[in-house]
Each structure stands twice: as C-alpha cells, then as structure tokens.
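Your task
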Amino acid sequence: MTKAAVDTKLSVNLNKVALLRNQRDVGYPGVTDAARLVLHAGAHGVTAHPRPDERHIRRSDVLELTQLLAAEFDRSVEYNIEGYPSPEFIELVSEAGPDQVTLVPDAPDQHTSDHGWDLKEHTGRLIPLVRRLKATGARVSLFMDADPGTIAMAATAGADRIELYTGPYAHAFAEGEAGTLLRRYADAAKAAEEAGLGVNAGHDLNLDNLPAFVHAVPQLAEVSIGHAITADALRIGFPAAVEAYLRAIRRIPLTL
C-alpha cells in the first residue's frame, strides 16, 4: 500500500553559481554567499556536484560549504554532494562529511548527467563504495532512470534512496506529452517505496513541470534543482525564486 504523501524538501544545486563565478578571476558570485541566500529564504538544503575538471564547483567550494553549514546553520539544513564515485570523489566526500551522497554514472568529460546507473552491470562495484560512504554517516542515493523493473536493485547495492533522473520527463512535458511517461515515474517511485528506498528527483525540473511531478509521485522526499532556479533567480532574485519553488512543490498557484 502506498503511504501518505511526504513533505517534499527543496535542495538548491549551486553548480551554476560556481560556473558563473569561474568565468572571471574576481571571486564572485560566491558559492557560500548563494548558499546563505537560498537557505535563509527557506530552502531545506544545498547540493554541490564537483567534477574532475572543476569547471563549476571546486574542491574548495565543497569544503567551504561544510564549514558554512557547521558555523552558521548548526547543520540544521541538508548538504548533498553528488558525483561519480572515483577515488578522488570518495576521498573528498569523506573529508566533507555531507548528510547525503548521490552517486551518478557520469563520465569525467560528460557535459551533464543524462542517464542513471545500469545496476545489472554495476551493482557489484557499487556495494563496497556505498558501504564505505555510509560508514561516514551519510545517506547514499543512486541516480536512476525511471525503470520500475530495476529500481529495487538499488536496495541490493545498499543505497538508502534513489534519485529519479527527470530529464526525459521535463522534455516530454515541454512537448505536451508527459502523461504516459509520468505514470512510469509514478510506478518507479512505488517500486522504490516497496523496496524500502526513499525517493528523490532531479534534472530539468522547473516551475512549470514541478507541480505535476510532485502530484504524481507522493513518495517524493527531495528535489534537487539548479539550472532552472538559478535562471529564475537572474530575473527575480534567489529569495523570490526559492519561495516560488517551495510554492510549486506544495502545488500552490504562483503569483509572479
């Protein structure tokens, strides 16, 4: 039986802030400054996705966010670090001590995340990595495609949650064809719930497509949003953008 809808939390991905900062050697906009803005505006957490080339989030950003949250927020908000589980990434996460680690199957030169784990191939490799990360006290989530038939394998790998890759849903929504695909996401979330896994989601979610997704997936514990919320913040500012996304999660009509 499906449980009652959970209270979905908003984690703001700060990668695009770091990308803009990196375009000039002047040190701004600051990643920690942006974290303060979104958290004081009501976001439940922040996400950082460091990549090997540091084209946006840098190793130093990851550690500075740890210091910020401990010093100014008493770790009352959630810190999520996502990335490919290379030895360097595992070492960085172990030093940073986030609340959640989201493992994604990105190649080092990949432009952005565009598929979930193939657990038929990678479960054996992931098991010791997940175990090591959980030993640090972090919750572990695996980035997954909306395939109801394979979702339960994330539990076999030792994960606590899965993050549904919502890029295909966002594309279908923009084309006015999200109905059938949205049912697949709902089935995948139900399969996760039945396997004892929590459900997160992320990638290309925005103010238009988020309410329908939250309605269809009542198990949704957390959404991680970066590109769209940063784009909206350029227009209305981060505090107003965070408020708008919190309203979208609650399916309250927007008044922008």
